[in-house]
Amino acid sequence: MNIEEYISSGILELYGAGALTASEKAEVEQLGEQHPEIKAELNLIRHTLDQYAALHAVEPPPALKEKVLRAVFQPETNHRSENQTAPANAETNPRVIPIGRVANQTAASTAFKWLVAASLTLLVMSNALSYYFYRNWQESDQNLQLALSSQQEFAQNFRRVQQKLSANQKALALLNDSNTLRVELKGVEKSPDSRVTLYWHRLTKDVYVNVDNLPAPPTGKQYQLWALVDGKPVDAGIVKSTDITADLHHMKDVQQAQAFAITLEPQGGSINPTLTEMYVMGKI
Amino acid sequence: MAGKENILFSEEDLIIRLQQRDEAAMTILYDKYSAALYGVILRIVKTEEIAEDVMQETFIKIWTSFQQYNTEKGRLFTWIVNIARNAAIDKIRSKEFRVGSRERSIDSSPVNHLQSSYEVRPDHIGIKDLVGKLNPEQRKIIDMMYFDGYTQSEVAEELDIPLGTVKTRTRAAMKLLTKLLS
Q: Domain residues of chain B, as ranges?
């Protein structure tokens, strides 16, 4: 081993400044015993650090002297525990400070207080989190219910629209069919402005009614369509929906007819038309 | 050496009397070294109240473990200043200290008074003069280890330099310090 190199590595300075681990220190001490050059260098470093420490000297308060000396010579209370816990060699293990029984108890009760404080803090935090998550869950659940009901509404609307679409498609196909007859029913004396268009398919016998203008039926009354066959009225169905102008109404099949008329009848329709309540009429 | 020299007692006499459990020798030890030890402790723990507690612990420890002191291992002052240093470093690393220092308000901290007490000491070269000659990095590395109890690897980590650099920088700083103090 090269002593010069070892000395100039800086490890002895670290030793002096107290920056080595216990095993590193032991090694330095052992080498110091074996090599006088190392020991001399170590002594120089210690001396420098001693002087450096002394540079920081501050006169302690005068009252401290008596206090310290009284504590030192106080019969046994401090010292017994000191001796029990003092390390075998203060030089090799100088960091260990003795801890008295009182200090132990204080430390334990301090630790306990901290433990309790930590537990309480955790409890409060956990409760707060639980409440927070509960609120979040409730809110999410509400939102889900809203989403579900609006989804249902959409589905219903969609079905309604689809039904209407297929009805309208059927009606459109009927209207475009060259076998479909278009009959205009015009207002009679009672209601000159009324107008209804009727579509009648010669082959399928389907009848559709489109209300262009009719007074809204009073409660308990409905419009009823009549097919006039050889001067005799034959029931052709009731205009069912409340908003009568909105839809194309699919009526009963009509086998044959020379004319059509609509009268206002009591709810559910009549067997024979109430002629005084006729609103529109049209011949084929 | 700081503190009052007591010409009636040589260091050897003092050591022998302490080994014989002579209580009067302890008083002499206090007179001789209390300023140096108190200064080091104060430098480490920063507040006078805690420094006084650590002083007490230090002298109790010197008294109770004096049998472990061995002249072979070095001078008495080296041994007692290390006891003081370690007691103070243990104190600042203890939980009690960390909790306490958080509760203390900045106003009551005597750190500012400390600065002035260094300055008013006329009987040795001012620490400021010395510091002026050491570059800040060199002083910092020694103070981190000697006063703040950093290990070699903690210094390397804190200053973000390799372990080898910690060694060479410490050696350079120490050499300069030796020159300045001689």
A: 1-123, 125-182
CA angle, A167 as apex, A163 and A169 as ends, to 5°? 115
| pLDDT, position B125 | 54
pLDDT surpasses 60 at A78: no
What pLDDT is recorded for position A133? Answer: 93
Shortest Cα–Cα distance, A11 to chain B (Å):
6
Q: How far apart are CA A36 and CA A57, in angstroms?
A: 32
pLDDT digits (tens, 9 = 90+) for A244-254: 877 788 899 99
- What gap in Å lies between CA A4 and CA A14, rounded to an integer? 16
ipTM of the complex: 0.80
**Contacts across the A-B interface (CB distance below 8 Å):** 191
Residues of chain B with C-beta less than 8 angstroms from the C-beta of A86? 61, 64-65, 68
Q: Which residues of A touch B90 (CB under 8 A)?
A: 95, 97
Beta bridge partners of A226: A235, A261
pLDDT at position A86 over 50: no
Kindly tell me if the per-residue pLDDT of A182 is higher than 70: yes
Helices B11-19, B23-45: axis angle to 10 degrees equals 110
Strand A248-251 relative to strand A195-201: parallel, antiparallel, unpaired?
Answer: unpaired
B125-182: CATH class:
mainly alpha
* Partner residue opposite A72 with nearest CB, options B26, B87, B174: B26
B47-69: pLDDT as tens digits: 999 999 999 999 999 999 999 99
pTM of structure: 0.51
Class of domain B1-123: mainly alpha
Of B21, B145, B81, B151, the residue nearest A94 (C-alpha): B81
B interface test, pick of A9, A55, A78 with most B CB neighbours within 10 Å: A55
| Domains B1-123 and B125-182 equal at CATH topology level | no
Report whether A248 contacts A153 (CB < 8 A). Answer: no
Quick one: closest CA in A to B180, which residue? A48
Residue A241 is classified by DSSP as S
